[in-house]
């Protein structure tokens, strides 16, 4: 069954070509580039704000860079390399070069504070740091390679296969502390999710992809690999800027935009998209507000998709455009190869639509999670049709007057108010009394009247859900990934 689906999606010639590439380079990322390198520049390339390479050029430059890194820094199988960079062609090139040597890659967010990296470097032995600016790492006693360094071209014929290394991604963790999730580049275990994701997101029809989500996150990394595998035109930007993104979407013939929800909100806060080229928006990494879904459906023919997953399990639930038309607040249904259960506080499975904790088992989970059900810490419910609905984090649950109150439910209600741009609900304690606090970002602070807003909540919300305190903030929240 799997084989037939792969043949249908990829084609017999491409499957054979992939086998040849793996036989040539082994199970590492360079095999992927070798597989797609014959794609013509008119049909497939990777581009950022200053560089544009065909897949063949990306492959050749990655091979040259691999030889340089191997020679100068003695990189080899199981060497540990930190890549600390944002979305760019240079960053992608280093990713493939290091992988081809069988080294273990640690992808780190370049926007973190120094003490974040210190704790990571102290716990592991790194051979090399790769990034954009050497001056930022002068106090770290490790060799540094500038990803933008131009390497002299040389003729290379790499024959030796390299054992697969690992890619390690550091998630923020439930307590905000860095937590590593390690995945080996094993092809077989990704067949089920790849097939289902391609079909559910209708990716075959897409030609040009804008990846706004950071590649150092698992979601962005998966988007990059899948786009390369399907031979798409890939557009990257180092930093997200709403005005620049709007311009790219409307002027560069982008068919598919891969994002986190807040990026959609920031772009649409400028104006609704005015482009016939954009066919789909794929959202993930955070909760997709209902009003964002409804606005896209009401103002355009753009298909919107929602992907749910964790750093530990990767993508495991998808809501298609049709799913979101039916239930705008659903996170979707489980994909192929995933086993899921909703459990109560005693660990017993819930079979009705009651709220419980989601546990997941999938063969492509990070190495220490793949053999058991992983407890996500997310509260969900599941209806009789198999749709899942996100209800919040278990550690965010507010117990007030005997009622279990889920912040996500409060936020969903607050988002119905057209004056609210962003909202975050949380439990609070004052003078020993438990209550609900809201942080609000409003469309126009000058005209915002808190008394009118309080009256609106009284009419629209159950009494026990009405917050005791409200803070109107002046800043937009940081882009967040689950």
From TrEMBL:
The keyword Transport does not apply. Keywords: Ligase, Membrane, Transmembrane, Transmembrane helix. Residues 39-361 form the AMP-dependent synthetase/ligase domain. Pfam families: AMP-binding. The chain crosses the membrane at residues 209-230. It comes from the Bacteria. The keyword Transmembrane helix applies. Belongs to the ATP-dependent AMP-binding enzyme family. PANTHER family: ACYL-COA SYNTHETASE, MEDIUM-CHAIN ACYL-COA LIGASE ACSF2, MITOCHONDRIAL. This is Class I adenylate-forming enzyme family protein.
């Amino acid at each position: 069954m799997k084989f037939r689906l792969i043949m249908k999606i990829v084609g017999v010639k491409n499957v054979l070509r992939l086998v040849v590439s793996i036989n040539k380079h082994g199970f590492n990322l360079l095999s992927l580039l070798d597989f797609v390198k014959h794609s013509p520049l008119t049909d497939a390339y990777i581009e950022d704000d200053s560089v544009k390479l065909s897949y063949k050029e990306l492959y050749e430059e990655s091979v040259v860079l691999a030889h340089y890194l191997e020679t100068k820094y003695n990189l080899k199988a199981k060497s540990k390399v930190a890549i600390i960079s944002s979305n760019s062609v240079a960053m992608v090139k280093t990713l493939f070069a290091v992988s081809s040597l069988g080294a273990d890659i640690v992808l780190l967010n370049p926007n973190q504070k120094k003490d974040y990296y210190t704790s990571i470097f102290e716990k592991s032995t790194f051979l090399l740091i790769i990034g954009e600016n050497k001056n930022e790492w002068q106090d770290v006693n490790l060799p540094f390679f500038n990803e933008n360094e131009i390497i002299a071209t040389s003729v290379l014929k790499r024959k030796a296969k390299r054992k697969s290394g690992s890619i390690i991604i550091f998630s923020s963790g439930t307590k905000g502390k860095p937590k590593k999730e390690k995945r080996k580049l094993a092809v077989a275990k990704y067949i089920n999710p790849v097939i289902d994701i391609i079909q559910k997101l209708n990716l075959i029809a897409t030609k040009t992809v804008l990846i706004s989500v950071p590649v150092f996150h698992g979601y962005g990394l998966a988007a990059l690999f899948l786009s390369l595998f399907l031979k798409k035109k890939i557009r990257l930007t180092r930093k997200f800027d709403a005005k620049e993104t709007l311009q790219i979407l409307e002027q560069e013939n982008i068919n598919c935009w891969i994002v986190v929800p807040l990026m959609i909100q920031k772009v649409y806060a400028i104006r609704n998209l005015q482009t016939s080229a954009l066919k789909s928006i794929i959202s993930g990494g955070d909760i997709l507000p209902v009003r964002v879904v409804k606005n896209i459906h009401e103002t355009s023919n753009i298909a919107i998709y929602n992907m749910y997953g964790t750093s530990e399990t990767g993508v495991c639930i998808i809501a298609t455009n049709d799913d979101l038309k039916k239930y705008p607040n659903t996170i979707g249904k489980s994909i192929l190869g995933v086993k899921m259960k909703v459990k109560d506080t005693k660990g017993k499975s819930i079979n009705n639509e009651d709220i419980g904790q989601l546990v997941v088992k999938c063969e492509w989970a990070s190495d220490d999670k793949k053999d058991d059900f992983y407890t996500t810490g997310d509260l969900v419910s599941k209806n009789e049709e198999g749709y899942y609905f996100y209800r919040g984090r278990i550690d965010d649950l507010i117990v007030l007057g005997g009622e279990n109150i889920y912040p996500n439910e409060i936020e969903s209600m607050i988002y119905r108010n057209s004056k609210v741009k962003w909202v975050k609900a949380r439990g609070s304690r004052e003078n020993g009394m438990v209550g609900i606090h809201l942080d609000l970002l409003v469309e126009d602070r000058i005209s915002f009247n808190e008394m009118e807003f309080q009256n609106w909540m009284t009419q629209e919300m159950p009494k026990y859900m009405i917050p005791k305190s409200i803070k109107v903030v002046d800043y937009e929240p940081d882009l967040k990934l689950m």
